[in-house]
Each structure stands twice: as structure tokens, then as C-alpha cells.
Amino acid sequence: MPSSSPAPRPAPGSVPGLPCTVVVCRGCCCGNPGKHPGTDHAGQLRRLRDAAAEGGFAVRTTECLGPCDQANVLVVRPSAEGRRAGGRPAWVGFAMDDDCTAEVADWAAAGGPGVAEPPLALELQFVRAPRGGRVRR
To answer: Which of 32, 98, 103, 123 is most buried by a 10 A CB count?
Structure first.
């Protein structure tokens, strides 16, 4: 006999089935070969997208996340499941080497915030989210 109780409602701000998402800053400082010539910015984005295709998470780019003095900046956003479990976006600064890129990809593939613990070395790169968003002058 079918249940007469309604289906559970998603947590506010979450979308059922929404995967963990890595947001990659590609604004004025992040992803800028002129400011960070020793970093393969295009290669980093390609590696994250390749890992996302295999690992079931999403990758987006954005113009500017704000803490430009900590470039390259990435935000690992929790999945809907992670959000329900209490996960919150994790801001990663100084994300310019292959090890950091691999740790972000592995963590996101494992479920990200609220689902899987971040690698300890990656936690050392966590930075504070800017208050009130970036203000352009």
C-alpha cells in the first residue's frame, strides 16, 4: 500500500541530486599567466574538468571570487547531500600546483564538504570567504 505521507522536502538552498561543484576563479589575478607565469592555468582547468567527467562532480568558472591576494582561488561547494549533512563551501587559496589540483579533484569525487573529509594538506590552504562579496572599484 502506498504511503500517504509526502516526500521529504529538500533543505533550503539545495537542489535534489545537485553534485559537489568546484568553482574556479578566472578573473583579474586567478588564471592570469602574466601574474603567475609558472602555473599552467589552462592545464589546471582541463585536469579538473577531466576529473569531474570521471568523478561525478561539476566544474564551473567565474570571473572573480574576490580574495585576489590568494590567487588562484577555488571554492568547493557541497552537493545537495553534503549540504543536508551540514557541509558548507570550502574556499581554497593559492591553488596553483598539481598536488593541490589533484587533492581538490579527489575530494570532490569523494563527495566534498559534508560527505568526505578534505585532505589535511588541502585544509592548510583553506581561506576565508570575502565578506559581502567582492566590490569592484
So the answer is: 103
Ranges of beta strands (E only) in 2-128 are 21-25, 58-62, 74-77, 90-92
pTM here? 0.82
For residues 114 and 38, give the distance between their C-alpha atoms in angstroms, rounded to a whole number. Answer: 33
Strands (E), the chain: 21-25, 58-62, 74-77, 90-92
Q: Which string of DSSP letters, residue by residue, matches 65-83? A: -S-GGG-S-EEEE--HHHH
pLDDT in tens, 34-52: 888 888 899 999 999 999 9
Measured between alpha carbons, how far is 107 from 42 in angstroms, rounded to an integer? 21
71 close to 39: Cβ distance less than 8 angstroms: no
Q: How many helices (H) and strands (E) does the chain have?
A: 4, 4
Q: Which residue has the cell 563551501?
A: 89
**pLDDT above 90: residue 9:** no
Closest listed residue to residue 100, CA positions, set 137, 134, 126? 126
